[in-house]
Design a protein that fits this description.
Blueprint lengths: L1 H8 L5 H4 L5 H23 L2 H7 E8 L5 E2 L1 H7 L7 E15 L2 E14 L2 E16 L2 E11 L6
Parallel strand pairs: 1-6
Antiparallel strand pairs: 1-2, 3-4, 4-5, 5-6
Length: 153
């Protein structure tokens, strides 16, 4: 089942891409990027600075859903633990991965749940992230987020 889902994630859009046969190297890179996505979600949930430092490239450019642009230092500051706010879950859905050698483009819907003063709330974002493989690991070099419709679940 996992290999079928991964194969679907690696499907390329467009007519020329429809004729593209996914290589073993692309499959391996897709799996590695998916592992990095899972680690990223867990690091955001846990506010784990060490893991986030490794996932975000030093030269990352992040465009937030409200149009602001920030780098790694600002992102790390935003991810610091907050005693008044706890992230209870971060899940990625509708994940698409396209691999281009040592670069990958990921699109996904992320749903997050937070607890603030005993009250749970949720938030959803669509994002596009560009990953580059550097020193044997996949890192985010560009990220753009957009508000997604909020669900009642």
């Amino acid at each position: 089942m996992k290999s079928v889902l991964l194969m679907m994630m690696l499907v390329f859009a467009g007519t020329a891409a429809a004729q593209h046969k996914v290589t073993e190297a692309e499959m391996k890179s897709g799996r590695e990027i998916m592992e990095t996505l899972n680690a990223w979600a867990a690091a955001v949930r846990d506010r784990d600075a060490k893991r986030l430092e490794a996932i975000f490239a030093d030269d990352v450019i992040i465009t937030t859903f409200d149009g602001k642009v920030r780098g790694k230092a600002e992102e790390m500051e935003a991810m610091k633990p907050n005693p008044n706010l706890r992230t209870s879950s971060v899940t990625n859905e509708d994940v698409g991965i396209k691999v281009f050698g040592d670069a990958g483009v990921v699109t996904a819907l992320t749903r997050m749940k937070f607890v603030s003063n005993g009250t749970e709330s949720s938030f959803a974002l669509r994002y596009t992230a560009v990953f580059v493989k550097r020193d044997g690991r996949w890192q985010i070099v560009a990220l753009q987020t957009a508000r997604a419709p909020q669900s009642s679940s």
